[in-house]
Amino acid sequence: MTRRLIRYEWNGTAFYIDSDRVDGLRGVDRMEDASAEDHIAGWMNVGGIRAPVYWPFLERDRTPEIRGHEAIVVVRHGGFLGGVLVDKAGASRDVPDTCVFPVPAACGDAVTRFASVVVENDSILLELSCSAPRVREETFPPRHQVGQAAAGGGATCRVLTFSLRDADDDDGARFALCMTQILEVGQRLAMAGVPEAPPSLLGIASWRTTPIPVVDLACWLGMEQRPLANTSRILICRGIAADGGRLSGLLGIAGAAGLRMRQVPFASDPWPAGVPWNDSRALGVYQADQRMLVVPDIDQLLRA
């Protein structure tokens, strides 16, 4: 089975729209004044119906503006009628269903703007959702018992510890994941940015033709932001609750350095004081080898 998608561009970013939802193109000179409402660039008249025209997406720290050379893609889907501003329109193409994946939850509010991720030959493009933007409901999963994942749910296991800065930097925290969660250490994977994603999301990478979110783990935890040791190195992992299926909750952690394998249990104590970051996103915070050791809640990140 295939889907016919049309490639468009906006501000240098390419994306797809389902051809079944495209009802034509028109010029921006036929658009009314822009509204102050989020995502709405203006209004157009379609067969006597006043329909909204949306920005495809909003970019962080950049105010959108109409430069005059854009076109409006008229879209219809269910009860929705509206337009999307684009810079360029390309040809339609048939994309196999096996190349189309859901947008990872780690992309935050971007999951309400994009319908899918399309991966072909290490190329990654997002499919725009042709519906009115909606506010994503926040969920707050219950905190796991601290330390359960550090032992992998059993008495002993092996863990991989790593830092997100240079391996010889002794004042930074180290992180730990069970070896059962680690799949691979990737290098220089093809990656695409995701507009409107949270700052902790660096992009979506293609790993063995599967799209996975790549995150700055320290940023997600709310730690002080510093340059990562090696952004081209991506630690491919999964959550403890992953079921091993096609979309079993895979994740890439950028910048992992100083990788070390250890056998649990090893000498450690609960961290003796509070921390200036969001420890509700960690399964445990410990002191080991005179350094902070953090067990991040990967399942919570995958559900974000």
Strand content: over 45%
Would you tell me the structural class of the helices and strands? mainly beta
CATH topology of the largest domain: OB fold (Dihydrolipoamide Acetyltransferase, E2P)
Overall pLDDT confidence: 81
Number of structural units classed as domains = 2
Roughly how much helix do the residues carry, as a percent range? under 10%
Q: Numbering strands along the chain, what is their spatial order in the largest sheet?
A: 8-1-2-11-10-9
Distance between the termini: 31 Å
Question: Largest sheet, described in full?
Answer: 6 strands, mixed
Report the radius of gyration as a whole number of Å: 22 Å
Overview of the molecule:
The protein is mainly β. The protein folds into two domains: about 1-130, Beta Barrel (OB fold (Dihydrolipoamide Acetyltransferase, E2P)); about 150-300, CheA-289, Domain 4 (OB fold (Dihydrolipoamide Acetyltransferase, E2P)), CATH 2.40.50.180. Helices cover about 5% and strands about 45% of the residues. The protein has helices spanning about 215-220, 300; strands spanning about 1-10, 15-20, 20-25, 40-45, 50-55, 70-75, 80-85, 90-95, 100, 115-120, 125-130, 155-165, 175-180, 180-185, 190, 200-205, 210-215, 235-240, 250-255, 255-265, 270, 280-290, 290-295. It has a six-stranded mixed sheet with strand order 8-1-2-11-10-9, with no helix packed on it. The radius of gyration is 22 Å and the shape is elongated. The chain starts with a strand and ends with a helix. Residues about 135-155 and about 240-245 have low confidence and may be disordered.
